[in-house]
Amino acid sequence: MEASPASAGPTRRRRSEADGTATTTSESASLLSRQLVDIPGSYGLPIVGAIADRLDYYWFQGPAKFFRSRMEKNGGSTVFRTNMPPGPFISADSRVVALLDAETFQVLFDCNKVEKGNVFTGTFVPYPALTGGYRVLSYLDPSEPSHTKLKLFVFSLLRSRHGNFVPEFSCAVRGLFDELESVLASGKKAGFNAPCERASFKFLCRAFLGRDPAAAGGIGNDGPALIQKWILVQLAPDLSLGLPKPLEELLLRTFRLPPCLVKNDYKRLVDFFRAAGRAALDEAERLGISRDEALHNLIFLICFNSWGGLKVLLPCIIKWIAGAGPEIHRELAREVRSSGAATSVGLNPAVLERLPLLNSAIYEVLRIEPPLPLQYGRAKTDLVLESHRARYKVRAGEMLCGYQPLATRDPLVFENSDSYVANRFVGEEGERLLKYVVWSNGQETAEPTERNKQCPGKDLVMLLARIMVAELFLRYDSLEVEATDEYIGDSVTITSLRSASSSVVVR
Questions:
Q1: What's the rounded Cα separation, in Å, for the pair 507 and 504?
Q2: What is the mean pLDDT of residues 185-192?
Q3: Is the Cβ–Cβ distance between 169 and 467 less than 8 Å?
């Protein structure tokens, strides 16, 4: 954050309602001294401007350059007006106010100021038929009665299954590494994504439902493929699949893909979760949620939110930690092995939570490449946004769009903001920066409740990430990978896994 001007008299401190942090009177004066200016930028001509911005976003620039170029065009302002894809003729209104700095981005978490209903996918909403005709939890604003019941249902699931997460995920990760090591030993490079996706789905089903999807009466190994097709149809207008660009424009961004394309696939998921999730659905009924609505929310929670999140996050963690280099690998291995986290009954999560470099390395992945790059919210009332350099008035009803990979690389908050620094969050100063790690739709220092939109599984995600990295360095000294972009996340290929006792390497 910018330094506050020096104060001639004694500095008093007050408590900020937004984040609970102390604010000096001199800092308050600094905020008030920032000039109230009009939001720069333009939407262009109706329809034409939106299509031109869409072509820039997908054809000519890509997301990062799209936002950076408009920031430069508007004099370096991190707040400006633009259109966001998919635009005509899927979005009723593609106009947004873009937020690209760490300060203004925070407003997207304040549910008193922004409406979070039907903004999960941005300026368009997929067909409700893709989720059984229901608006599932991710599309609800906290002010809606169903939001409270459904989020309490998720919290109940997390509490009641808590004892399953460590042993089941440790088992899944060890099996994953066995499979990767076997491929490498045969002289081939080992693709990480496909076995990781299978392991993740098996873990989620065993941990939440107590059921192996490959067991008799399940869906075999088809789960990841079924889910991926279902997610693709929902997010198609916001994706680039690598097809010829005119064909993508025609197929993906002219109209929403119809639910009939995955009707049979989704039915297989519904049948499996209806049978395997009986205990979870019983819990939902006790909370006053109909069994059918709970079923489709359970599918969305496990398949879209959880499996889809792990599909993006786990390869990303492997990519960035592999790229951190041998010295960081040695430090991580030394920290994990000397911690006593590995016991005769498995990993001790309380010990993992106290390992500073392990946790920092994971937070840094979540900062530099957050799993969900875009966050949206619609202003409930007229409000004033405060960036590092100015204040901007937003009118009620305007859509705000935060591009997280730039907001969490804010150079006025993070030094060397475009670089992966594994120990960035170590120590008191590093911990102070955690409020700007916002991958979970809220500050890392905040807690999810039924009254906000922060990810209810925030702590579980961190636990799983710690287990993945800890199991990696309990077993290996270092690793090397190759990574390329996929339409959702990264495609990672393991080229070497090295340990003191043995090494499997493919060049």
A1: 10
A2: 96
A3: yes
Q: CB under 8 Å to 266, separation ≥6 — which residues?
A: 130, 226, 230, 259
DSSP string, 370-403: -SS-EEEEEESS-EEEE-SS-EEEE-TTPEEEEE
The amino acid that residue 118 corresponds to is N
For residue 164 the two structure tokens come to 């399953």
The total of other beta-carbon atoms located within 10 Å of residue 354's CB is 12
pLDDT surpassing 50 at residue 11 = no
Q: In the prediction, which pLDDT does 505 show?
A: 60
- For residue 428, the cross-strand partners are none
> What tokens were used for 131?
């989720």
Please give the share of the chain, as a percent, with pLDDT higher than 70.
92
As a whole number of angstroms, the distance between CA 303 and CA 309 comes to 9
Structure tokens at 487: 């339409």
Residue with tokens 């907001």: 407
The number of C-alpha atoms within 13 Å of 207 and in the hemisphere containing its C-beta is 25
CB 152 within 8 A of CB 406: no
**111 and 394 Cβ atoms separated by less than 8 Å:** no
Asked whether residue 408 carries a pLDDT value surpassing 80, the answer given is: yes
Residue for token pair 């493919």: 506
With CA atoms as reference, report the closest residue to 453 among 189, 177, 107.
107
Q: How far apart are CA 362 and CA 373, in angstroms?
A: 17
Contact 84, 401 (CB under 8 A): yes
Instruction: Give the chain's radius of gyration (CA, Å).
Output: 23
Q: Tokens 């993992």 correspond to what residue?
A: 352
Distance, C-alpha 365 to centroid of its chain: 11
CA pair distance 378, 118, nearest whole angstrom: 10
Residue 299 contacts residue 219 (beta carbons within 8 Å): no
- Please name which of 369, 491, 363, 357 lies closest in space to residue 418, comparing C-alpha atoms: 369
Query: Structure pTM?
Result: 0.92
User: CB of 193 within 8 A of CB of 186?
Assistant: no
Q: Tokens standing for 62?
A: 């890509």
Q: Kindly tell me the sign of the dihedral angle through the C-alpha atoms of 324, 327, 333, 339.
A: negative
* Spatial CA neighbour of 352 closest among 337, 331, 371: 337
Residue with tokens 């916001």: 238
Bridge partner residues of 485 (DSSP) = 490
CA atoms within a 13 Å half-sphere pointing along the CA-CB vector of 162: 7
**Which of these, 335, 339, 356, 322, lies nearest to 478 by C-alpha position?**
322
Cα–Cα separations (whole angstroms), residue 481 to 177, 317, 408, 478:
14, 11, 25, 10
Per-residue burial over 71-96, b if 16 or more Cβ lie within 10 Å, else e, is beebeebbbbbbbbbbbbebbeebbb
